[in-house]
Amino acid sequence: MSSRRIASSLLTTPAATTVSSVRFTQHTPKLCTSSSDPRHRFHQLSQHAPAPKVLITGGLGQLGRSLANVLKYMYGPDSVVLSDIARRPAGHDHLSPFCYINILDKTSVEAAVVNNNIDTLIHFSALLSAVGESNVPLALKVNGQGVENVLEVARTYNLKVFIPSTIGAFGPTTPRDGTPDITVQRPRTIYGVTKVYAELLGEYYFERFGTDFRSLRFPGVISDTNPGGGTTDYAIQIFYDAILKGSHECYLRPDTELPMVYDTDCMTSVIQLLLAPAEKLSLRTYNIQGFSFTPEQIAAVIRKRMPEFEMTYKVCPMRQKIADSWPRSLDDTNARHDWNWDPKYDLEKTADIMFELLTAKLLPPQPKLATL
Question: How far apart are CA 16 and CA 38, in angstroms?
């Protein structure tokens, strides 16, 4: 994923050019090339407001690293503090600033906020769907108590707080096609149950204490980062396997349709929501939809680029049951209306960029032929 690409696209969207938020505004004069460039107007709006100072929990995961890269590009290298319960890998100085946080220890979250002058807290720490089912007690602690600690710190220190939700917050009694923002939510996984809890608790903190809580229900997120234990992760692993092995064994049925979003669009949605003026928001939690597909459809798209690619199926009953309880598509009308959500990547474009990124990442560079 290109941080420059995301930041530049954000600066040319209608939502970005009308933002007057004080605590989360753009400050990148090097991007403003002329007075006719829409980015120039955005820079003018930001000149009288400070750049945010953002703390990201779960910062070493798929979403944390991606978002940190974009925010650092937009606001400078010291604007984001990554945190995780895992230690920063040796030789990864680009992940600085970094601090250790146990999300179950509220004092460690408070210390990171106070010591780094944080005004925006992005909470990515969570056990995902398949991993959560294998360790329910831990998922209850991390996904439940962790949210409680984050919201209480946000209330105490008057922080803007973003906590993502998921399609897993819906269940088998939810309308599966064009699922609206407000509908039946009776999930059948501990991950989904804790995410509904996060949505409701965040909205309570907003109504009761005025805490600026914002959330998005992410579909499956496709990126070049290694999968992290979610039910939609096959949509990432399939590209790794295609490049390295020429085949993929899928744990879902060929006809299992699920909503997805490409990483660049996902990061854009987070920043757009954070930039949106409070008076524009009609909800605290929004759906976002990129595109939907089945395993057999993504396999066909890969075969256009690799005709020899082979797809086999070994259905995992647990993951299939989870997928069958989730929406096939989401209605994101409110996000489009309130803060101009407008995804740019479809399945074909996503496949192109995934092959480009993973080929460079996984395969050794071809030696150049000597010229006489």
Answer: 9
Instruction: Report DSSP state, residue 172.
Output: T
* Single pTM value for the model: 0.87
The DSSP code for 250 is: E
Name which of 80, 17, 22, 100 is nearest 267 in CA terms: 80
Pairing between β-strand 220-222 and β-strand 120-123 as defined by DSSP bridges: unpaired
At 13-58, the pLDDT tens digits run 444 433 333 344 433 323 333 333 323 323 433 344 468 999 999 9
Task: Tell me the pLDDT tens digit for each residue of 176-206.
Answer: 999 999 999 999 999 999 999 999 999 999 9
Integer CA distances (angstroms), 103 to 56, 147, 148, 204, in order: 11, 8, 10, 20
Domains of the chain, by residue range, sit at 3-221+262-290+328-345
| CB distance 108 to 146 below 8 Å | no
Please give the positions annotated as active site. Answer: 191
| Class at the top of the CATH hierarchy for domain 3-221+262-290+328-345 | alpha beta
The answer to whether 241 touches 282, Cβ cutoff 8 Å, is no
**Dihedral angle sign, alpha carbons of residues 21, 75, 264, 172:** negative
